[in-house]
Design a protein that fits this description.
545 residues, globular, six-stranded antiparallel beta sheet, 5 helices, alpha+beta, 36% strand, 32 strands
């Protein structure tokens, strides 16, 4: 049989972006399922809980149904889009119930006192120290007078840097509802615990400054400079500038290979730039941008310890037959960029044409010892030319429209992606090796963040022995990712599936393995079977034998 290196059938460029809600939900749903399955497997393996195999299989089948070739590519009719979003919502609800069951299992030991207990579940070995946000009620009833703040502590009583921000609710009850933000240390797989307490008085001022050096232009409402830890500049223009681009294509983008004609750009509304929060953990700056009938409310988040910039955008889109792109003009000028694809990474040409990827792009060149990583929650279409990356966010082609059917001025047609969209993008910078190692775990954190529960009673149940998934996964080097953790098909063993994600060969040492070292080639995937007696062996990816 012939051997093909690279992609098959690059054909319909509109499908990389069409029906953007489905694209983002597909990413979220997949990460949520992998996370939920791993947490249920850990509760079964470590704590002896029942493994919900049938419920997980149903959720997987619901998710996979939407991979049908006219649903996921966004070429279906509007009723089919609503059906697909409903199916993703059912998967999400199933995962939420199963994760809560896993949390209850991990908390099933003797009760421990805590004013506001916090349980955090993680299934991402590459992101074991990350920012977390916890919303809670201070008490059964509001405290009508006085001033106080929340402290974050470990169960042992060690206080952590913490800040408070506006919660989702807008209640006028003297801060009854609170949102706390702090950096959490998480297990590679399983549960960890913190507690929140009230302290009288105002919180002491603390704002040590961003871990990733940058400059924010208050007139543009955009970042205009971004430097690595070594002081190398990565930008040559405003970061994530919203562009409005001509898009005459049909639902599939038939015969459309590039979307480069800029018809306008969103401009920052005068006086809209506001500092929402600045404390021990991060600084949050909000700006509002306007174009035509559409609006973007953007929050730029700079972390003090975590070297990353995060952009959260709420897009109110009301344009037709146009495309929204986010521009990232960099100092690099490569012939190609490295992107995530299913099962690994691949290069895409920097030729100005529209290409496809999964959740991250890494750009660098041979002239600099620096690289920029762009991670997002499902913006799969993009182009690159002269070092400028343009992410495709939305496109408003007509629903299920093939170019042979002519659209006239009447009757009124339905156009895609109208309304409100929530977008998240994370930017990192560093050496090429550093960036390639970090993009994968951050992508998992963005699409499948830790599950956080306030007020769940604390009674951590300890694993029975040392042959736990968490102990094994704590040995992973940073360039190995957990693709799956589940019960084996025969129900007697635990399956761990690992992949090298940086493009560099690596070794994994497991003390309980007869041959103590496993070799992983660049982007290699290996599946391990862990027995109850501690034995580990490699097995086939599908049949597990």
């Amino acid at each position: 049989a012939p051997v093909v290196a690279g992609d098959l059938q690059r054909v319909f460029t509109g499908c990389y972006t069409s029906l953007a809600r489905i694209k983002r939900q597909a990413v979220k749903s997949l990460s949520g399922l992998v996370q939920t399955e791993a947490l249920c497997a850990a509760a079964w393996w470590e704590l002896g809980e029942e493994y919900p195999a049938a419920r997980l299989e149903t959720a997987w089948r619901d998710h996979l149904f939407n991979d049908f070739h006219d649903i996921l590519p966004g070429s279906c009719i509007e009723p089919a889009e609503q059906d697909a979003l409903g199916l993703y919502a059912r998967v999400d609800e199933s995962c939420r119930r199963l994760r809560l069951g896993a949390a209850a299992s991990f908390n099933a030991g003797p009760r421990q006192p805590a004013y506001i207990p916090v349980t955090i579940l993680n299934a991402n070995p590459g992101a074991v120290r990350v920012p977390v946000e916890v919303e809670c009620m201070l008490d059964l009833r509001p405290k009508w007078s006085g001033t106080w703040h929340l402290r974050a502590l470990t169960l042992e009583g060690r206080e952590l840097p913490c800040q408070e921000e506006q919660p989702e609710s807008l209640l006028p009850f003297n801060g009854w509802r609170r949102k706390a933000v702090f950096m959490a240390d998480l297990p590679p797989l399983g549960a960890t615990y913190y507690r929140l307490e009230i302290k009288e008085g105002r919180r002491p001022e603390a704002n040590p400054g961003p871990a990733l050096a940058h400059r924010f232009d208050r007139e543009l409402g955009l970042v205009t400079s971004l430097q690595t830890a070594q002081g190398e500049e990565c930008l040559k223009g405003p970061l994530l500038k919203p562009l409005v681009v001509e898009d005459p294509g049909d639902s599939w983008g038939t015969d459309q290979w590039a979307y480069r004609k800029i018809l306008g750009e969103f401009s920052c509304v005068a006086g809209s730039v506001t500092r929402l929060a600045a404390g021990a953990i991060r600084t949050v700056t909000e700006s509002v941008h306007q174009y035509g009938h559409s609006r973007i409310v953007a929050q730029m988040i700079a972390y003090n310890e975590w070297p990353a910039l995060e952009l959260r955008m709420r897009v109110y889109w009301q344009e037709e037959q146009l495309r929204l792109k986010l521009a990232i003009p960099t100092v690099f000028d490569p012939d190609s960029v490295l992107v995530e694809v299913p099962g690994g990474a691949w290069t895409r040409p920097a030729n100005g044409q529209e290409h496809v990827h999964r959740r991250w792009v890494v750009i660098c060149d041979s002239h600099r010892a620096a690289a920029l990583g762009i991670i997002h929650d499902g913006l799969h279409g993009f182009d690159v030319q002269h070092g400028e990356i343009r992410l495709s966010v939305l496109r408003s082609a007509a629903y299920c429209h093939e170019q042979g059917f002519r659209l006239g001025p009447t009757p009124a047609r339905k156009f895609m992606d109208q309304g409100v969209h929530e977008i998240r993008v994370v930017i990192i910078a560093g050496t090429p090796a550093e960036v390639r190692t970090r993009v994968g775990p951050i992508a998992e954190w963005l699409s499948g963040p830790p599950a956080i529960y306030a007020h769940l009673p604390l009674g951590p149940k300890k694993p029975a022995d040392d042959q736990t998934p968490s102990r094994l996964l704590s040995l992973l080097p940073p360039n190995l990712a957990l693709l799956a953790c589940k019960q084996s098909w025969d129900g007697r063993a635990l399956i761990l599936r690992l992949q090298e994600i940086s493009g560099s060969a690596t070794l994994l040492s497991l003390p309980s393995l007869t041959n103590a070292t496993l070799k992983f080639g660049p982007f290699a995937i290996r599946t391990l079977r862990l027995e109850h007696d501690g034995a580990i062996r490699g097995v086939n990816l599908i049949s597990e034998v």
